[in-house]
Design a protein that fits this description.
Rossmann fold; 11 helices; 45% helix; binds 1,4-dihydronicotinamide adenine dinucleotide
């Protein structure tokens, strides 16, 4: 079977992705800072918010992995520093450290967000923050780039989208045929949604949900993540796949 590493497996989208990957016959290695109630496959407790946390995690992983699903994320309610550390710099450090262990033709899938679509409008800042190599002192990065706490979440996802597009063309991945793609969910019924409601306000979240009739579920997102991991997606690279019931299309097309 294939070995798939999934972060954020203690809850929501990561938990459902792990469960479904197991049903498809994959050997799942789940990662989270919290113990999952019912782990699908094996579990490694790790905190990807620091370089030491990522290094410890890497040391406990097998030498060969077929796919990496970067699902773990924070809502932004703990501030910009922790949010950027988990949602971008930790995720990227894990991906780069794992690249040599990913099999040729393997895949990385990043769970981004519709909240990251400002990457193009904010390209200068995003490019500058993505351009910082390795696992930086995130507090310094936040101060240098004047990222406000309430901007932490959208900025983290802007960086993640821009990095996804770049990583698809980065030698580290490209030389060995490792594809790097993103999935951008709209509002999904998981514990993080309540935190988004606190950060963004109910009106904003409810209007997004109303545009497409309902919120998504973890089960709406997981199959798309696993498709991008699969050989069926062998010619899909550097893509962002919105999984939002049509929300992004309705905004782009100025429907409603
Ligand atoms: P969730 O809160 O249910 O799950 C996130 C998981 O990440 C938790 O189990 C948490 O313990 C783990 N995690 C947090 N910090 C960590 C760290 N330092 N190290 C390791 N694991 C850590 O949320 P959900 O909805 O499953 O979110 C998954 C991803 O989907 C996140 O990246 C989120 O930004 C993204 N997303 C979610 C949306 C939603 O409405 N639910 C919308 C758009 C994107």
């Amino acid at each position: 079977g294939k070995t798939i590493l999934i972060t954020g497996v203690a809850s929501g989208i990561g938990a459902r992705t792990a469960e479904l990957a197991g049903q498809f016959g994959a050997d799942v290695i789940g990662v989270d800072v919290r113990e999952p109630a019912a782990p699908a496959g094996s579990f490694v407790k790790a905190d990807i918010s620091s370089k030491a946390g990522v290094d410890d995690l890497i040391a406990s992983l097998p030498q060969r992995i077929d796919a990496l699903c970067n699902v773990a994320g924070l809502s932004g309610n703990t501030g910009a520093v922790s949010t950027l550390a988990v949602n971008f710099y930790g995720l990227r450090a894990l991906s780069e450290a794992l690249a040599p262990r990913l099999r040729e033709g393997g895949a990385i899938v990043n769970v981004a967000s519709i909240a990251g679509y400002g990457w193009r409008a904010n390209l200068n800042r995003a490019a500058s923050m993505v351009g910082i190599e390795g696992f930086p002192d995130v507090a310094k990065v936040v101060a240098d780039h004047q990222v406000k706490n309430e901007e932490g979440y959208p900025v983290s996802k802007e960086l993640l989208l821009l990095w996804t597009f770049r990583a698809a063309h980065q030698e580290l991945f490209k030389n060995r045929g490792i594809r790097v793609n993103a999935v951008s969910p709209g509002p999904v019924e998981t514990p993080i949604l309540k935190q988004f409601r606190n950060v963004l306000g109910d009106a904003r979240v409810d209007s997004d949900i109303a545009r497409v009739g309902r919120a998504g579920t973890s089960g709406d997102i997981a199959p798309v993540v696993l498709f991008l991991c699969s050989d069926g997606a062998r010619w899909v690279n550097g893509a962002n796949v919105p999984v939002d019931g049509g929300l992004e299309a309705s905004i782009n097309a100025e429907v409603l």
